[in-house]
Amino acid sequence: MLYFVIRAISNLFDLYSIALIVYALLSWFPGAYQTKFGEFLTLIVEPYLKLFRRLPLQFAGLDFTVWVAILALNLLNRVVFYLIGVLLMLL
Q1: What is the number of structural domains in the chain?
Q2: Quick one: which of 21, 29, 30, 73 has its CA closest to 52?
Q3: pLDDT in tens, 45-83
Q4: Strand, helix or coil for residue 59
C-alpha cells in the first residue's frame, strides 16, 4: 500500500515536470496559450512559475524560468523522497 502512495507522489512530480515542458513549448506556436489546453496549462503552471519570475532569469532574449523551475521541482522531489526514506527507516 505504501509503495503505491510513494509511486503516486513520484508520478505527480513527473507529470508536473512534463506540464512545465509543454507549457514552455507552447511559446513556439502563435496563439497556443489562448486555446482551451493552453489556458488549462496556464492555470496549473503559472502559480508555480510566478515564484521564479521575480529572479533575473532572462538572458539575451531567452527565458530560463521554466528550466530553473524544473530543476527546483526535481530537487524538491529528491528531498521529499529522502525524508520519506528516513521516516521509513525510523518506523
Answers
A1: 1
A2: 73
A3: 999 999 999 999 888 888 899 999 999 999 999 999 899
A4: strand
Output the pLDDT for position 80. Answer: 92
Longest dimension (CA), the chain: 53
Q: 72: closest CA among 24, 20, 7, 33? A: 20
Half-sphere exposure of 31 (CA within 13 A, CB side): 1
Range of the structural domain that residue 53 is part of: 2-90
3-state secondary structure of 55: coil
Buried b (16+ CB within 10 A) or exposed e, 39-68: eebeeebeebbeebeeeeeeeeeeeebbee
Q: ∠ CA 48-53-55 to the nearest 5 degrees?
A: 125
